[in-house]
Amino acid sequence: MASTSSGALALARPTCDQEDGPRRRHYKQGKSGSMLYDHRTYTCRPGTIARQMKLYEDHGWPVQLRHLGAPVLYGRVETGDVNSYVHVWAYDDAADRAAKRAAMAADPDWAAYLKKSAESGYLVSQVNTLLTPAPFLQPT
Length: 140
Hints:
By secondary structure, this protein is α+β, with helices and mostly antiparallel strands. It has a single domain, classed as Alpha-Beta Plaits (2-Layer Sandwich), CATH 3.30.70.100. The protein contains three helices and six strands, in the order βββαββααβ. The strands form two sheets. It has a four-stranded antiparallel β-sheet. Strands 1-2 form a two-stranded antiparallel sheet. Strand 4 and strand 5 form a beta hairpin. Helix 1 packs across helix 2 and helix 1 runs antiparallel to helix 3. The two termini are 22 Å apart.
């Protein structure tokens, strides 16, 4: 993860040809014919977002990469609710999402991260939205 001059986190979007070990991400239609995107917005108590991001970077990020691969996007909100960050994960379909998230939930490292995150008290809300691409979208 790289920081921009404003402190926002940025990730380069992997391409279909980019190989990044276990984090390789294919942007293609899933087995059922439609990708599924998991858009997640987390809001932190004012003044705690940098600490939450560091906690996640140290303890949550490695586990999610291991189970989910690289996200499509992981970034800090620059306008609007600046106490928020967003991440978007791509799955082949609902079954792919369920299997990957179940494997992650069973990982003791993920449980340890969730415990640390809960104990920190930085997060105040979470909103998850599952999206399917518009029929005219041609993933790259």
